[in-house]
Structure formats: C-alpha cells, structure tokens
Amino acid sequence: MKPNTSQPLVMQAKGIVKRYGQVTALDGTDFELRAGEILAVIGDNGAGKSSLIKALSGATVPDEGELLLDGKPVHFKSPIDARKAGIETVYQDLAVAPAMSIAENLFLGRELLKPGLMGQWLKLLDKKEMLKQAISRMNDLKVGIRSMTQAVETLSGGQRQCVAVARAAAFAQHVVIMDEPTAALGVKEGNMVLELIRRVRDKGLPVILISHNMPHVFEVADRIHIQRLGRRAAVVNPKTISMSDTVAVMTGAKTVDELPLEALA
Amino acid sequence: MSTSNKRPIPWGALGPWIALAVTCLFFTVQTERFLSGTNLSLVLQQVMVVGVLAIGQSLIILTAGIDLSCGMVMALSGVVMTKFAIDFGMNPYLATACGLGVAVGFGLLNGLLVTRMKLPPFIVTLGTLNIAFAVTQIYSESQTITDLPEAMTTLGNTFNIGSTEVSLGTVTMLLLYLLAWFVLRETSPGRHLYAVGNNPEAARLTGISVDRVLITVYAMAGLFYGIAAMLSVARTGVGDPNAGQTENLDAITAVVLGGTSLFGGRGLILGSLVGAVIVGVFRNGLTLMGVASVYQTLITGILVILAVAADQMSRKGAR
Q: Total structural domains in chain A?
C-alpha cells in the first residue's frame, strides 16, 4: 500500500532550523521528495510550512541543517540560485505580467535571442522560436488556450495560473514548487489547475504542493507531509488515511503513534 | 478551456491618431493658414524638442514612474554645453558631450534615488526639478549664452523635400523614435522594461534585475533630455536658462496623449510621437487663432487631465 517509497530521493532536507529573532519557525525539520510524485505539504498557520518552502526555494537561507538535491548538498542564497539548480516555484498571487502576451510571459526573464551576434550583442529576440516553443509546450500540457499572442489579462484566473504552472514546468529540471496555486480560484478553475499539476507529474517532474485545501490535497497528492510546530509530524498516504485523521495530526489532536501503520507513507 | 478570440478594440493604439485627426480638422476649419506645407513643417520643427523629451519620459512612465525634471535637466544640459564652449573655448563637440553627461548624471541620480532609497519617482524628480532649475540659473547667472560656434547649430539647419522645409533636428527626432521603437519591441531589455512596469514582483521572480532596469531607464531618459537640449540649442541658436519650462509638462502631456498608461507597462513609443505632434498642433493652431500663450498653457493643463482620465476609464473597462 505504501506509495513509491522505493523511488529515489530528488530533494531532501535534514534538520533545518530557521529562527526569526525570538521565534523558531523551523525547529530541525526533515523533508523528503521522491521522483515522480506530488508531495503535498500541509500544516496549520505557524507550523513552519511557508518557512520550509522558502528554504527549499531559496527565498530564505536556513540557520542550520542540510539541503540535498539529487543527493548532493546545495546552498541557495536566492530564488535565482534555486532556479539555476532546476527548481521552479509557482506563487499563489499569479506572478505574471498582465499586459504582456502568453508567449512573452512564458519566456519572461529567459527570452530566447536570435542566434549569432544579433542575439549576443543586440539582444534581438527570436520571437518566432518563442512562439513556436510556447505553442508546443502548452500543447504538451494540454492547456487549451488558442492564441499565444493574446495578453494574459484577457484570460480567466485559472488560465493565468495555468500559464504560470506551464512556465514553471517548461523550465524546471528537477522540481516544481507550487505555493497555494488554487487558493485564488473558483471550483472549476481550481480543478483545471489540479489537472495540470497531475500532467506535470506525469511528465516526470516531482511536484511540491502547498495547500490549505484538503479536498484538493487528497485529490492529487501521492504523499502528504504534515508540518507541525516547526517539525515534520508525519508523512501520510492519502489513499489509506482519512481526512479527519490528517487534520487531527495537523492540529495535534492525534500523534503519529495513534495512526494505523498503513496510513503512513 | 477555450478562450474567446475576440480582442478588445485597441483604443490605446488608435485613440491618439483619432485625437490628432480631430485636432487637425478643428484648426483647418478655424484658420486657413493651418493646413499649408510651410506651417506643417513649422509644427514639426517646434515639435522636435518636446518629441525627444517625450521619448525619455515614455521610458520612465512605462516603468510606472514619472519624471517631472525633464525640462529643467534639458535647460541645464543646454546651458552647460553652450557655456563650456563659450567660456572655456572648449571644442563644441566636447562641450556638447559634457552637456549630455550632465543630463545623464541627473538621470542616474533620479534612478539611484528611486531604486536605492526606494523614494517615489514623483517626489525624487520634483526635487531634482528644483535643483536643476536652480543650478541652471546660478551657473548661467540667468544670462542667455550667445555667439555659439556653428557646429552647435547644425541640427537646426533645414533642407527641402519638395516645397516643405525639414530640419535636421526633426529627422534626428524621427530616427530616435524608430530606434526606441525597435529596442522596446525587438530586444530583451525592451521587454524587461515593460515587464517591470507591468508587474515588478513578477519581473523580479523571473530573475529580471528590477533595479538595474530602472537605473538604466532613468539614465537613458537623461541622455534623451541631453539630446533634446542639443536640438533646443540648435533651433534657437542660444543657450537659454529659461528653456524647458513649457516643454516640461508638454512632454508628459505628449506621452499621456499618446496612450501610455501612467500605471506603467502599457503603451507604444510611437504614440508619444503622435502625442507630441498633438501638443505641437494645439500650440501652433491656437497661436494662429491669436490665443495668448497663457491660455495655451491652460488648455494643455486641461488636455493632460482629460488624457489621464481616459486612461483611467479604459483601465476600469478592461477589468
């Protein structure tokens, strides 16, 4: 019943500590992401969920502990470092430029330049190639948006988030981190994004999904990392644990020892 | 998950042309002298200074900033280049380069204050507006600099296309617009500028150095104000410490009339050219109608508010 625990570890954190003044946000937390899975990270407010994600995505530098990517230690000083290592992050507040086209947004900050001196010296954009790749990447992920040249602001919230997810999936070499990707969306739009997250995993990219939305977590996650009081309280299998038990662990009403063994992952 | 392919009518791109057509029509009906080759070439000559200022202003407004200091930086730059040439007997090209350097320096100062000190562009440039104005008056002792070497007025020379006089300065302005249009549209720095104006946070998260883009934009804008100073000096044949006082607001008006949003990230540089021509046509047409210049200023003030209101309303409509 245990899901893919035999898969190799893609990302691993050991004993991460992060303090903000008097507050200890992360108190020696561990973290494991395996190849080909969607790992949901849940936790009550103040459990250290967002601090953990910030440490993984390079947004903060942990005070102690070790971060491993494909078994090799890494030290991220900024999100750019994490991105260079192949970790892309999708933020909940739709980090897109609304007046720019879908193709432009997909390649924002990583524009393809014309080959040769024209690109190198004059920084001339290769618009044709970007459009071609934008179309093929969106088709790969079955994002049914017809025109890549339309402005992102003409899209619905869900479609915009799909653009952000597609951008991350297109450039991530190792891991895609999604921070509350469905929080701002309605039911139908949320499902659209969940569907897309599954496709990203099926293409072979492991996904870390941070979400408050339990039904969403249970719908797509392969394993659930429960964060509590700055530590990892448990990693559970959504197929064998009930939603109420999960919430119980999250809030401290139950401890790991009280869970049936098959609920763990 | 399909999207309607209906795109909103691009009023942002069409609006300025419609406004220009209506303005021209109005003055053609009002005064017979308006629609003549000589008058229209005069308009283009009058437009060149505001037009070049408006390029720099556009770059800044596209990043959701504003530069109130543009006309005063131009005046200082013009005074520096002419005074260096006359007082020190400096080579006119070197003197011009010094003037350009001062303008770029002011742009850089604006950019550094906006990015490093995180001050709002409105306040920063309101400050540098006054600093540049005061330095200009102190340095020139409020005296006009005359007897310029010929090299400094070359850009004011004209040649004929048919019976229409075209000045080298106008050609320079048009070339600068083409260059700015090309860079904004076809290069990655151009797209980064739009991205920073659109959503600085998104730009930062994709790895664009927002501060570097902004500093570059303010410095480049300074360079354009310096070039505007060259044109102003060439056209008037003097270094005028009181230059740039009407051009300051006119340049902002031109950009806004040209459809560039004050909220940043939206707008076309060629719209600013159309906007500059609209401002020029207004001033020219009103002069032909015998309207005193103070009323022209009144009308420009009303124009800029109308244009900003139109921008604001179209924004609401788009949401």
A: 1
Query: How high is the pLDDT of residue B35?
Result: 86
**CA-based nearest residue in chain B for residue A114:** B187
Domain hosting A225: range is 9-92+173-263
Sign of the CA dihedral B169, B170, B172, B177? positive
Q: What distance lies between CA B114 and its chain's CA centroid?
A: 20
Is residue B118 within 8 angstroms of chain A, CB to CB? no
Which helix (DSSP H) or strand (DSSP E) does residue A175 occupy?
strand A175-179
On whether residue A252 sits in a domain, the answer given is yes
At residue A116, the pLDDT reads 87
Q: What whole-number distance in Å separates Cα of residue B245 and Cα of residue B34?
A: 25
Q: Kindly state the tokens that stand for B228.
A: 């505007």
Q: What is the C-alpha separation between A127 and B191, in angstroms, rounded?
A: 11
Ramachandran quadrant class, A77 (left: phi over 0; alpha: psi -120 to 50; beta: rest): alpha
What residues in chain B have per-residue pLDDT under 70? 1-12, 316-319
Q: Quick check: helix, strand or coil at residue B29?
A: helix
CATH of residue A80:
3.40.50.300
Cα–Cα dist A201/A185, whole Å: 21
- Give the list of residues 6+ apart from residue A170 with CB closer than 8 angstroms, or none: A106, A133, A137
- The Cα B253–Cα B272 span in angstroms is 9
- To the question of pTM greater than 0.80 for the whole model, the response is yes
String of DSSP letters for B119-167: --HHHHHHHHHHHHHHHHHHHHTTPPB-S--GGGGGGG-EEEETTEEEE
Backbone phi and psi for residue A238, each to the nearest 5 degrees, phi listed first:
-65, -20
| Residues belonging to chain A with any Cβ–Cβ distance to chain B shorter than 8 Å | 79-80, 83, 89, 91, 93, 95-100, 104, 108-111, 113, 122-125, 127, 143-147, 150, 153-155, 158-159, 162, 192
Q: Give a yes or no: residue A137 inside a domain.
A: no
Q: What SS3 state is found at A170? A: helix
Q: From CA A241, how far away is CA A218, in angstroms rounded? A: 10
CA distance A165 to A90: 6
The predicted-structure confidence for B249-264, as pLDDT tens digits, reads as follows 999 999 999 999 999 9
Residue A164 lies in a domain: no
Return the closest-CA partner of residue B196 out of A122, A99, A88: A99
Q: How far apart are CA A56 and CA A16, in angstroms?
A: 10
Rounded to two decimals, the ipTM of the complex is: 0.82
Query: A87-97: per-residue pLDDT in tens?
Result: 999 887 667 89
Cβ–Cβ below 8 Å for A80 and B207: yes
* CA distances for B54 relative to A228, B74, B253, angstroms: 56, 12, 9
First-to-last C-alpha distance (Å) of chain B: 20
Asked if residue A122 belongs to a domain, the reply is no
